[in-house]
Design a protein that fits this description.
- This protein is of the alpha+beta class.
- Helix 1 runs antiparallel to helix 2.
- The relative contact order is 0.25.
Length: about 120
């Protein structure tokens, strides 16, 4: 649901990581990118609305006001909605490169293309 909601709002370069073995507080990270601050906010709002409507409660939300990096905590899944500059700077995929990638390609209509290449194996 989170992947589809993000995709519908124009999120790019979605990556899902299985973090269970390395991070005891969640099972997965979903990382997506928005083009501008308002897009980051719209993506995070859509994800939160979709999951809340399905009965998945938001435990914590941070960063929505700035629209640069929004963190949504739903318990089993943490969603990171980045502005491209923040995603390039923090490189979460590189930081968590030991975690298996979850194939979400069948869940999106928009090809995974970022302004700058994102690699988790660097």
């Amino acid at each position: 649901m989170a992947v589809r909601a993000a995709d519908e709002k124009g999120a790019v370069a979605p990556v899902a990581l299985e973090v269970t073995e390395h991070f005891g507080l969640a099972d997965a990270f979903l990382i997506v990118t928005g083009s501008v601050e308002r897009n980051v906010q719209a993506i995070s709002d859509a994800i939160e609305d979709e999951l809340n409507d399905a009965g998945v409660r938001t435990i914590r939300r941070e960063g929505r006001e700035s629209g640069r990096w929004v963190l949504l905590d739903f318990g089993d899944i943490l969603v990171h909605v980045f502005h491209q500059e923040e995603r390039d700077f923090y490189q979460l995929e590189r930081l968590w490169q030991d975690c298996p990638v979850i194939d979400i390609s069948a869940m999106i209509e928009t090809p995974a293309v970022a302004t700058a290449p994102v690699s988790i194996n660097e």
